[in-house]
## 1
Amino acid sequence: MKLLVILLLFHTTFLMINGQISSITNTHHETYIVHVQKPKNVKSLRSTDLLSWYMSFLPTKTLASGESRIVYAYQTAITGFAARLTKEEVKAMETKEGFIHATKERMLYLHTTHINDFLGLNQGTCLQRDTYLGKGLIIGMLDTGVLPNHPSFKDSGLPHPPTKWKGHCDFKPTTCNNKLIGARSFQRGNKDLPYDAIGHGTHTASIAAGGFVKDAQVLGNAKGTVSGVAPNCHLAIYKVCHSSVCGSTDVLAGIDQAMDDGVDVISLSFGGGAVPFYDDAVAIGALAAVEKGIIVTSSAGNSGPTKGTIENDSPWLITVGASTMDRMIRARVKLGNNEELIGESAYHPSGFTSGFLPIVYPGRHGSSRAKACSDGSLSRLNIKGMVVLCHNSGANTTVEKGIVVKKAGGVAMILINEEDQNMTTRAAAHVLPAAHVSYFDGRRILAYALSKTNPTVTIIFDGTLYGISPAPSVASFSSRGPSSINEGVLKPDIIAPGVNILAAWPSPVGPLSLESPMNSTITSMAFNIVSGTSLSSPVIAGVTTLLKIAHPDWSPAAIKSAIMTTADTLDRDGLPISDLYSMGAGHINPTNANDPGLVYDIVEDDYIAYLCGLGYTDKQVSVVARRIIECASIDPINAEELNYPSVSVALGSKAEKTITRWVMNVGESESLYSVQIKRPEGVEVSVYPEKLSFSKMNQTLSFSLYFSSGDVGAMRGGASEGYLRWVSNKHIVRSPILVTFT
Ligand SMILES: *[C@@H]1O[C@H](CO)[C@@H](O)[C@H](O)[C@H]1NC(C)=O
Ligand SMILES: *[C@@H]1O[C@H](CO)[C@@H](O)[C@H](O)[C@H]1NC(C)=O
Ligand SMILES: *[C@@H]1O[C@H](CO)[C@@H](O)[C@H](O)[C@H]1NC(C)=O
Ligand SMILES: *[C@@H]1O[C@H](CO)[C@@H](O)[C@H](O)[C@H]1NC(C)=O
């Protein structure tokens, strides 16, 4: 009897809580992106006309607090606006004529790794031909802002921005120059200046298009002349991320502005989990930009190596994963038994002891926080004078863990990868002597430390080394395909350097950073070494800018095809880099991309046919297309049929499938290509015709790929890899083939 009463009470309480929550949501305003039709009977789409059209959807102009309901009135990327509304108000709006769709604002996160350090860009990996340094083109960086006075953004020798440029500089006008031609901030209507308070935006902008700076270095390491990938290119800064969070309404406002201003390439280094495209403001804005001929590059995410973690998965984006380079800033770990293991750190202290020091392992009996040397977890331990073993887990970045160790009295830190982080180590700008080691090396260190009563260790700093193998390899953190929502197109598209990237930073790093915290209003000559797919997107933004200078008439899809079909699939030792879900078409090869021979182009309406093929309703397709679409009047195409430079097909047992592709000749006017196929295990593949004979430039020819599977059996649910190559005496045009068995 008692029990029953209690249960009833619980039940009532539960209902009451529910009641309270729903009464709160009644007056709870959230920001929505509202897509509407273009106003009818309005002659010019001047912004005032648009604004009054948008206002007509709102119950009131302002909230009771006096705050404006409209946050953004978009003009170019979409017909629609962002506004503060309750759920009920959105419901009421749905009945108004001209309404199409409303989506709640999403928060997107920067793609530096959650373990937030950075690494270095090797000049040798990027095309920097004298004639193609990016002159006259504009890269729009949607990020955390910029430190404008950094030497990487000097404009010596650069021409004025092209006349099409219509952008604005929110800093004092004298702060912008011919390198940094514009800078705006978007934060829900707040008027802050586009200064970079965390470093991410300064770093990514200088990777894409920073100028040459001699004697760049991080704490004496990785010394040399640095520059961005397209050092003569102009930069337009759109600050849409504040601390590490980017609201989708702000991002869409940034894209809207960048399109209006006249940028040629947009780079995005943030994302959220995959969602359907009609609820993905970034995908919608990016399609608008691509239709205008603007290339949009984006980071793949840092949630690897788990499969199905890819972000920014739409076929009109160039989705970029992170690779390692052949440079290492080596910090060797020498155990008391003389065993040596290889680690990395960008901070090489002068005069660090060559003698052995005692090891302490807070994770031995401690919590997961102590194991990770998280903030506050070491204060009660006596670690004075000791070398502390920390796992590379938990919320704090590797540099922050070092701060925690140093504050608790530790003299050095050995940072040990978790199993899924495997071999990817980082040369971060630590505040104390440190070495970051792989999972395997970490296991040996732990085994030694746990087996001895008085384990000891020392760290030997070797400086910057080049020619390290394997390189390139895929970073463990780089997000993997397939997309959890939008399957059918292989993602990522390509990989580019994203581990240990050296580039501009707004403030000193290393031990000095403890004394002078980030102050982005001060001119500084600082650099930092950071890792994340965040840094791979601006590499590709730079490369595609160079390609666009060389080939001004190529569409964004043609340029994507050029970088994908010429990508490297073997590392420098001639071994396969990785699988397709981690590397897509392979590692960027800018020189080859400049002369691909053939390109797979995609014309505008193909994306609409693809959206219809996803099974979206007309309304949902219309939201993404930003115009009224009736799928019944279009021939929908399956994702497999999109004229993509990679091939991804799903097959059941004893199934057959034929897909078609077409290529355009951009090499020699007369050229003959023959097909080569590496057939994925478990399927037969044939191509018809087997030869493509071109007689002029821009000529297009199509071909069919015919697949047939046997009994799928144990391969069901798995995938199999191969490739298709069109080979002439000058060119190899390679497309990866992924077959998934259903
Ligand atoms: C460690 O992470 C916590 C939680 O994110 C943060 O509050 C703290 O400032 C970080 N510690 C350091 C030393 O930065
Ligand atoms: C870790 O890296 C090694 C060497 O590259 C590789 O053989 C192994 O498969 C990787 N392990 C995981 C879990 O990725
Ligand atoms: C940064 O420097 C400026 C100029 O010297 C100064 O006015 C400002 O207070 C500083 N900000 C911080 C957070 O130290
Ligand atoms: C190829 O097409 C582009 C874009 O349409 C055009 O600019 C170029 O002149 C064409 N080349 C030839 C040889 O027809």
## 2
Amino acid sequence: MKLQFLLTFFVFHLAAAASMKPQSAPVIKTQDGIGLRYNQTGPKNGQQLLFVPGWRQAAVEWRKQVEYFSQVGFRVTTFDMRGHGDSDKPDFGYRVSRFAADLNDVLTQLDLRDVTIIGHSMGSSLSWAWWDQYPDSHRRVAKFVFVDQSAVIVKNPHWTDAQAAEVSAIFGPGPIYDIAADLANQLEPLVRSMFTPSVSEADFEWVLDQNKKMSDANAAALFVDHSFRDWRDVLPRITVPALVLSGELSVFPHAGIAWIATQIPGAKSYTFTAAEKGSHFVFWENPERFNEVVYDFVKR
Ligand SMILES: *[C@@H]1O[C@H](CO)[C@@H](O)[C@H](O)[C@H]1NC(C)=O
């Protein structure tokens, strides 16, 4: 009798706990068997947008864009990259080429068409890698928005300072390995440098928590691979309209980001000013202006 009571009690609480769990996002499986969580919001027949996060960032950080664009009629897709957010976290595949393959799996399995891909930071690099590696999928993409990512991060020691500045190559090779080896301590100042000083502590802590969903080891492997890629030869081969966004307060000096638009045929660039809170995370710090600029480009 007593046992039966205990069992009933236990089952009841288990059921209550299960029903309280937030609905988890649906999953696609990559070609190497990794589960990636994604969300689709807004009318099914709406114009397609796909937001790709930056290194170590979670899809949920796009929520101010998801809310706005789905409300004005777009079909908005977000996904957590491998090792990031709520997606599977295998101990392999932390290189941009693999992430571009994952991006292609998202595009093809969700059958996205006429989609505008908005890539933040490393999300832009994934878009360049994907364009380079998957010509058969080019027809799916209508436009690109590249948000604050230089075409080369590492300054070749054989370059002059002017050569490095032209493309905003902001790190020497050594510092990349130094940051990667000490991510437990480097993460917080790194994330801090991506915002303006006016970011609230609550927002900063929340973004830091999203970053910590990825292990330091996986993040370090991806950071090194991402940093040493050079996308300059891909840019002139992009054949869809592109908008390149930079910020006066970004860690990447804006002239070297705007340079990208001079390399892509017909591309436009826009620099968010200091008054517009033009940081690396401008989409979070000034969503009204960011959404307006992206809207105008996508609707044009
Ligand atoms: C999907 O939406 C839920 C609820 O807002 C959120 O918790 C989750 O992080 C989102 N996942 C992705 C991949 O966008």
## 3
Amino acid sequence: MSHLMNTYARLPVAFSHGNGSWITDTKGKVYLDALSGIAVSTLGHNHPELVAAIAAQAGRLLHTSNLYRMPQQELLADKLSALAGMDEVFFCNSGCEANEAAIKLARFFGHQQGIDSPAIIVMEKAFHGRTMATLSATGNRKTQAGFEPLVSGFVRVTYNDLEAVRAIAEHNKNVVAVMIEIVQGEGGINIANVEFQRGLRQICDENGWLLICDEVQCGMGRTGTWFGFQHAGIRPDVVTLAKGLGGGVPVGACLTSGKAAGLFKPGNHGSTFGGNQLATTAALTTIEVIEKDQLIANAEAVGRAIREDLALALSGTSGIVEIRGQGLMIGIELDRPCGELVTRGLDAGLLINVTADKVVRLLPPLTFSAEEGRELVARLSVLIRDFLAA
Ligand SMILES: *Cc1c(COP(=O)(O)O)cnc(C)c1O
């Protein structure tokens, strides 16, 4: 028996190596990877430039700690700030840590304005992580059960319901921020509509609140723009990143601008590993390749083609509720629980995911080619049709 703590219902497969969008298991079977390790391996597997950059950095320095300056970290902060239109960056190692930084920052911001019990508006079906604060911000009772008492200071509203946010603005003077995923990942690929995003920006401005965008899953090119909020042309005060940022190397970031910048001083927050040489080199190289190979345009075009081809291939199939998404962040909602499709996918040589019980989730590498997109649609549409017919 394994000594691993039983925190995952693991699939009975292990992989030995990968190449681009293809990954091979320990028995030699090859799979098309339409999940990228949950939006992490954005350059696909074994990308030659990323491998070379990581290897070269490992041969120089892995880590020195944030007691010292790190040129790579400064370069990455410059680059991310330019891409996102932000001012400052704090580096950590994961999505929940990036969100913890954002939550601490929002509370700190509130206290500076004399609000002793600052609150953050969060969304139904949100996912922000598994630490106590991010779990409390998450909108899923099941993942919270058994871990009470939760961290206080979160007020929940329905996604895309601007009136609910306005109502809270009138009555709750403790609110200091709104936290939102522009495209909810774990919650089932739900997209914040443009009016909602712009409305939130306006309400935050009117009330002096921070707008925090959790772009841990939908950021870094996934939706066909660098960041999800760029579709609506808004600028958040705080942006959190992780998953795809390092192309597979753990790294997270919390970006701030305007009134959210300049708040933290030495001693207010920190991380031992955060943004070390290995992690920031991986992120810099990932961004370089995304730009050089125009992978954001690729994500937009290939993602659109996949959604259109899926709609065609599944048209007239009863049991399909909706096919939705942006770029290479795609959900196919069925009218019934469909977790079983994941193992059926393995049999068919396809890595996919099911989230929110009924939503098939696709998060292919940003390097996914048009041909791989067609192969994905061919394999997946058969799986879904057979599943729904059974
Ligand atoms: C995955 C995810 C997180 C948590 O990231 P970890 O690296 O697992 O801590 C937070 N927010 C969103 C939107 C995510 O998709």
## 4
Amino acid sequence: MAPARVVAVVLLAVGSLLLSAAADTATAPSPQPFVWQKAHATFYGGADASDTMGGACGYGNLFAEGYGTRTAALSTVLFNDGAACGQCYKIACDRKRADPLFCKPGVTVTVMATNFCPPNDALPNDNGGWCNTPRPHFDMAQPAWEKIGVYKGGIIPVMYQRVPCVKRGGVRFRINGHDYFNLVLVSNVAAAGSIKSMDVKSSDSEDWMPMARNWGANWHSLANLTRKMLSFRLTNTDGHTLVFNDVVPKGWTFGQSFVSKLQF
Ligand SMILES: *[C@@H]1O[C@H](CO)[C@@H](O)[C@H](O)[C@H]1NC(C)=O
């Protein structure tokens, strides 16, 4: 390649890097994906992850939902009022900051955000108040934590980055609530993992109605949608939108789940 063309190609490459960096800061949720950042990690539950039921995202029984034990509770700054529910993080023990005896070298584990690790203001940030603001902290299911840490360590410094979530099958919806209050749990979301906005449309209407995040991965609508055929429109936190046409059949009842064929 002639030198002038090499320069042009390099400039182009630098230009697009700058552009994508600018786009990231404009649209990326907090924390930014694909950048290694520092945090700490502890574990909860038993070695059988018996405490992986429930959680502040509302996914329910994590085994039944297919999430297994690769799950974590996030501190306030990471949890972001539930906006982080469903996001995935690759985590490694940080040997530079840890007692090397407590790090398992050369391994990472990927966990999904399923829960909130509440602050404990009675304890200092550096001694038990691990999830206090402004600390980024992962309280992981024990089997996931033990992939990267040695039990005796208890708490380890980690490096983490957001990664796309990998899921089998389509996005799922579970409807709870009552007439004029539909609480829809959105789960099994691949890629970004987290949802930025959601709308609902019933088959007897032309109009999409916005839903609001109620708690965790639960979104609500105050319309009376009972037993009507429903479509949902989801936009994930990467800005991609999918329409789930007629994913809920006419005659549905509260407590039912619906598996779509679509995935991000
Ligand atoms: C909500 O809609 C359903 C189905 O159309 C209807 O049977 C029910 O009475 C409505 N609920 C209320 C409280 O109006």
